[in-house]
Amino acid sequence: MKNSIIIFLLIAISFNGISQRNYINSPKFREHIETEELAEFITADLKIDSTIKLQSAMIFIQVNTKGKVTFLNISGELDKKFKKIVEDRIKSPLTPWLKKNKKNSLWYVFPVFFGHIQKNYSMDEMKWRMLYLENNMNSLRELENDNPGNVVILRTYNHLTNKGMQEYYD
Asked: Is the pTM value of this prediction over 0.90?
């Protein structure tokens, strides 16, 4: 009886190990890792401290099968120096585009949100931020409808320097 229980446990453990290996090697899991590496690469040179006013944007990128950027649009509010840093990283030949990009042209959407949230935002600033967000969401919906299966949405890059906010979002 004890031997059959031990054998059953060994079989269950080895089956569990095989099941987990199949999940880790799955294409969806690999794609998730690739998107994380891409987001880290694009934002690697952003140096953010508490003096930087809140920046938010949605970056739309189209990349052909050879890894060349054919369309780049930064919709939102980014300072010129941050926009230049992001554009340089995106256009770099070292950018790690997804492996499935080799089969067809892909669109990448990268939401970016960083800086220091100011206490005294004016009504106009808040209105423009809401308008940017609404337009970006509508653009994203149209892009997904026009290119089904060829849109990759990267995880939002959050880096807020406010005390408490940084622990919550980072």
From this structure: no
